[in-house]
């Protein structure tokens, strides 16, 4: 099929060269609109911003802008728009896909100083917050009203709500309570041209196209968010967690399907394989059974009556599906202990290995066995270990590939291992990223998941918001040229995603 | 592409070449909805059937021309349902029409809207390209969320071929309670309940009666009934009540007076418009039968922090949907143009010039 390239923006065809910026003039213009503390351009001052949570990619930008108000955000964007300078928005910098990696010829726009909770309305159950507010802080502030903000990505202590919108962050409770997109009612933002837009409202829908959905997971490519209204949820009166052990991961996967088939939507449903269990047990002493091939954590929340009924049903299903051991949390301390291990999976990986590389594919749950078997094979192919934690309820798998960047070749093997997992996720009918975003990390795999016309659609869609393509260029959606090159490298093998960027 | 997809792609390219509009249509049950109906009908009903349904994955993938009733029957056979309780508005409603219209029923305030359940779509764009976005998994952030963008776009961006939808288990138990009170008190009560961990699945107020539906685990529903009091409706009356609201077969929706839908914050005060009123969605959806002028209704909705839709009316000259501010209108026009450069898909159905 012939592709219609005439209507495509330049950035869709190839990476655009932005190196011809008049840096001195740019800095002078930014200084005119920002207070001195809100502008960094000395390379040492900018070091803390050179990477996000995916630290293997680092890049110092031309300048770091730290606006404190929406007007300052708009002023910075107008300057960059007029000068044709790329802008990369950044929240707390906890992202795992390099989405907030600075652009070498661009401005890094940190929203960290915009960290005010503007208003909480306990009756309407909404909170209006600035993008730099930490995820967990919203729940802390809402707790006095018996309310909380439901999405709880594992980085919730540190990650910002603005970043959550940009990545459509999930968490361990999203099967029942939804992702960020299901819990945000409105965003206010500024386009690259410096125009303020209100998307959504405090009602349950808005006229016209669902731009609110488009903003979620858009990785800072459409507009810069300056204010967010989130939905608050009544805190469940009670929660209990079942810990079940299995002597086989496939059996554990089947048990998950059986829980869902029984008409139960647990508040959380997580799986860990034996190596993951062993890694976290040594770290947090959660009391996990170490001889199990897999453990499941299944949480029920609601009224005490509701939880009692649901836990009994979950227990019955797990017993008939081969659980070798079942424990039900007896009190809140034990429930939290059960979760402590799962939530500590990433740091635990960091403890047993010099480095780890976290993947984020999502697959139909029934294909789990195939995926885990394939990962075992890949361990020997790439000569690296991998431990697996899994949001079993929604099919989102986080294999953690363990490596040591100081051993020559291990980083490259880890990346190749990760790429193989992502390729398989697509082949199994899933996706390369469930909640971490494409960023710069998975950009080549986008060439596999989407056809040329689909990727062209993405570029045209972006151009409806950002005609010049200045917001976060080179991320999330690969240019036609990049995919063509990736296709050639893929054939030769041994590809490196970003040879142009310094690697650590 | 299948034969029918190929035929449609050809028809689209032909229409684009001659700039002749196409009107995408399933069962035609929502012909009443939206601004204008222009173009040659492209009937989607030949493209029907469930493509895949895995109850344990909570996902169904279905062709757009499939009758909504057929899909719901297939789900019910496995003890599952569409969580957003979509209205059919007549026999023959299709899944594609349901997604394109983006209308949700009584469960919306607690379970979510159509867009909250749409996981993926395959479509033909205005160039006749077959495109697939999203998927059959709950979590997917690869690329922009075009699947949700298509939801509620009234066929103005592309021709839906199939959609993947998250489904929910049918509740184990349900109970409907009735309380007599005025409208303002009812709105306050709905918001109070909304802030508590109660298994609320729908609320309504009409003519001095607040009705509440509880859905969930048996024990939770029983406990909530005991706590809340009120008069419990028998199952048949309860079903008739919610069905009447979902399908607009309730007496409130009869007659010829224009029907306005005001979507407002749940805590919004009295609507302050002439005519009769029906409240749903925990206070966030207010139906009004009124002959009052459109401009004052829109101004009132906006003052309350929401928007107004002229849902059903013989005369739509005043515009069906709340006008967009210039910046958003510009984004809408560029989005429309990016999917449908020749402007052939249901032009004017959503807004004039779109």
Automatic annotation (TrEMBL), chain A:
The cross-references to Gene3D superfamilies, in alphabetical order and at most eight, read: 3.30.465.10, 3.30.70.2740, Vanillyl-alcohol Oxidase, Chain A, domain 4
Could you tell me the superkingdom of the organism this chain comes from?
Bacteria
> Is the keyword Flavoprotein in the record?
yes
What span is annotated as the signal peptide, if there is one? none
Q: Which UniProt keywords apply?
A: FAD, Flavoprotein, Oxidoreductase
Instruction: Please name the InterPro entries in this protein's record.
Output: FAD-bd_oxidored_4_C (IPR004113), FAD-bd_PCMH (IPR016166), FAD-bd_PCMH-like_sf (IPR036318), FAD-bd_PCMH_sub2 (IPR016169), FAD-linked_Oxase-like_C (IPR016164), FAD-linked_OxidoTrans_Type4 (IPR051914), Oxid_FAD_bind_N (IPR006094), Vanillyl_alc_oxidase_C-sub2 (IPR016171)
Q: Which residues form the FAD-binding PCMH-type domain?
A: 57-235
**UniProt keyword DNA damage present:** no
Could you say which cofactors this protein requires? FAD
Quote one Gene Ontology molecular function term.
FAD binding
Q: Which residues cross the membrane?
A: none
Name listed for the protein in its UniProt record:
FAD-binding protein
Species the sequence originates in: Denitromonas iodatirespirans
From TrEMBL, chain B:
Q: Which top EC class applies here?
A: oxidoreductase
Q: Which residues form the FAD-binding PCMH-type domain?
A: 1-170
Has keyword Oxidoreductase?
yes
**InterPro entries in the record, alphabetically?**
FAD-bd_PCMH (IPR016166), FAD-bd_PCMH-like_sf (IPR036318), FAD-bd_PCMH_sub2 (IPR016169), FAD-linked_Oxase-like_C (IPR016164), Oxid_FAD_bind_N (IPR006094)
- Which Pfam families does this UniProt record tie to the protein? FAD_binding_4
What keywords are annotated for this sequence in UniProt? FAD, Flavoprotein, Oxidoreductase
A molecular function (GO) held by this record is: FAD binding
Keyword check for Transferase, yes or no. Answer: no
Task: Report what the protein is called.
Answer: Glycolate oxidase subunit GlcE
Question: Which Enzyme Commission number(s) are listed?
Answer: 1.1.99.14
Record-linked NCBIfam families:
PRK11282.1
């Amino acid at each position: 099929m012939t592709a219609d390239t005439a209507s495509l923006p330049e950035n869709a065809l190839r990476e655009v060269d932005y190196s011809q910026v008049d840096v001195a003039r740019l800095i002078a213009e930014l200084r005119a609109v920002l207070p001195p503390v809100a502008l960094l351009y000395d390379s040492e001052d900018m070091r803390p911003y050179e990477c996000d949570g995916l630290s293997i990619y680092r890049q110092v930008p031309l300048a770091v802008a730290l606006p404190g108000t929406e007007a300052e955000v708009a002023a910075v964007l107008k300057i960059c728009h007029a000068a044709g300078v790329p802008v990369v928005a950044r929240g707390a910098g906890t992202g795992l896909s390099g989405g907030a990696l600075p652009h070498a010829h661009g401005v890094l726009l940190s929203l960290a100083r915009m960290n005010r909770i503007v208003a909480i309305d306990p009756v309407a159950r909404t909170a209006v917050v600035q993008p730099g507010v930490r995820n967990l802080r919203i729940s802390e502030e809402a707790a006095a009203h018996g309310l909380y903000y439901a999405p709880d990505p594992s980085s919730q202590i540190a990650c910002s709500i603005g970043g959550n919108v940009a990545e459509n962050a999930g968490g361990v409770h999203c099967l029942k309570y939804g992702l960020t997109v299901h819990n945000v009612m409105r965003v206010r933002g500024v386009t690259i041209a410096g125009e303020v837009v209100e998307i959504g409202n405090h009602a349950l829908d808005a006229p016209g196209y669902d731009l609110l959905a488009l903003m979620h997971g858009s990785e800072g490519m459409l507009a810069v968010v300056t204010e967010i209204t989130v939905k608050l949820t009544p805190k469940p009166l009670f929660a209990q967690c079942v810990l079940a052990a299995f002597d086989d991961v496939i059996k554990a996967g089947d048990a998950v399907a059986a829980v869902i088939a029984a008409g139960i939507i647990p508040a959380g449903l997580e799986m860990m394989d034996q190596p993951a269990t062993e890694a976290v047990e040594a770290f947090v002493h959660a009391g996990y059974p170490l001889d199990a091939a897999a453990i499941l954590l299944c949480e029920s929340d609601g009224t005490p009556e509701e939880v009692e009924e649901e836990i009994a049903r979950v227990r019955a299903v797990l017993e008939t599906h081969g659980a070798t051991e079942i424990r039900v949390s007896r009190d809140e301390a034990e429930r939290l202990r059960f979760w402590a291990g799962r939530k500590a999976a990433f740091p635990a990986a960091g403890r047993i290995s010099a480095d780890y590389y976290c993947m984020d594919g999502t697959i139909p749950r029934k294909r789990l066995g195939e995926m885990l078997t394939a990962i075992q094979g890949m361990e020997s192919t790439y000569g690296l270990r991998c431990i697996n934690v899994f949001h079993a309820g929604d099919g989102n798998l986080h294999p953690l590939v363990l490596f040591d960047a100081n051993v020559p070749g291990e980083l490259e093997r880890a990346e190749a291992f990760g790429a193989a997992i992502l390729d398989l996720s697509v082949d199994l009918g899933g996706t390369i990223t469930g909640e971490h975003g494409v960023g710069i990390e998975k950009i080549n795999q986008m060439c596999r998941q989407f056809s040329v016309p689909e990727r062209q659609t993405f570029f045209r869609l972006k151009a409806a918001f950002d005609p010049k393509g200045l917001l976060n260029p080179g991320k999330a959606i690969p240019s036609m040229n990049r995919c063509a090159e990736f296709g050639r490298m893929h054939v030769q093998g041994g590809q490196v995603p970003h040879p142009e960027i310094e690697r650590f | 592409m299948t034969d029918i997809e190929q035929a449609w792609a050809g028809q689209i390219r032909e229409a684009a070449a001659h700039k002749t509009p196409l009107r995408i249509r399933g069962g035609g049950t929502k012909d009443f909805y939206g601004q204008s109906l222009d173009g040659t009908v492209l009937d989607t009903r030949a493209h029907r059937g469930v493509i895949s349904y895995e109850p344990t994955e909570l996902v169904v993938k279905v062709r757009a021309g499939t009758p909504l009733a057929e899909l719901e029957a297939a789900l019910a056979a496995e003890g599952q349902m569409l969580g957003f309780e979509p209205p059919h508005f007549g026999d023959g409603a299709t899944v594609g029409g349901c997604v394109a219209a983006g209308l949700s029923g009584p469960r919306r305030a607690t379970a979510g809207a159509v867009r909250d359940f749409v996981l993926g779509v395959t479509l033909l764009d205005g160039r006749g390209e077959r495109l697939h976005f999203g998927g059959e998994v709950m979590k997917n952030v690869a690329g922009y969320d075009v699947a949700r963008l298509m939801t509620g776009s009234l066929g103005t961006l592309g021709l839906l071929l199939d959609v993947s939808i998250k489904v929910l288990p049918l509740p184990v138990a349900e109970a409907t309670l009735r309380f007599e009170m005025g409208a303002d008190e009812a709105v306050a009560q709905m918001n109070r309940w909304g802030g508590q961990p109660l298994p609320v699945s729908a609320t309504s107020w009409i003519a001095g009666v607040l009705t509440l539906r509880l859905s969930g685990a048996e024990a939770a529903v029983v406990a909530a009934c005991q706590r809340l009091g009120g008069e419990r409706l028998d199952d048949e009356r309860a079903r008739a009540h919610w069905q009447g609201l979902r399908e607009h077969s309730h007496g409130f929706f009869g007659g010829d007076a224009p029907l306005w839908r005001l979507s407002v914050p749940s805590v919004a005060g009295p609507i302050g418009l002439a005519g009769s009123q029906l409240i749903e969605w925990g206070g966030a959806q207010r139906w009004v039968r009124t002959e009052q002028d459109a401009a004052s209704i829109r101004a009132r909705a906006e003052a309350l922090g929401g928007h107004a839709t002229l849902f059903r009316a013989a005369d739509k000259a005043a515009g069906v949907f709340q006008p967009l501010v210039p910046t958003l209108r510009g984004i809408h026009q560029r989005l429309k143009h990016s999917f449908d450069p020749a402007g052939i898909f249901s032009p004017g159905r959503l807004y004039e010039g779109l």
